[in-house]
Amino acid sequence: MRHVYIRGIFTIIWLAAAITSALSGSFEMAALYIVLGGAFFYSAYAMWRREKNEKGDR
Q: Which DSSP string do the residues of 1-58 spell out, in sequence order?
């Protein structure tokens, strides 16, 4: 479960970097950071679902 938390924290960090980049006017980097944040979010969500299904919680 700790991997899910770590990836969730990385998601928040990448999205904060995207907001900061967008406010500074670097929209290309903001888009890249949004993609990276989305990748970490998807990874955390997929791992959370896998762990939930392995425990039998449905």
A: -HHHHHHHHHHHHHHHHHHHHHHHT-HHHHHHHHHHHHHHHHHHHHHHHHHHHHTT--
* Distance between CA atoms of residues 33 and 9, nearest Å: 14
Residues 47, 20: Cα–Cα separation, whole Å: 28
CA angle in degrees (0–180, nearest 5) for 17-18-24: 90
Running along the chain, 58 residues long, what does each successive block of 10 average in pLDDT?
A: 91 96 96 96 94 77
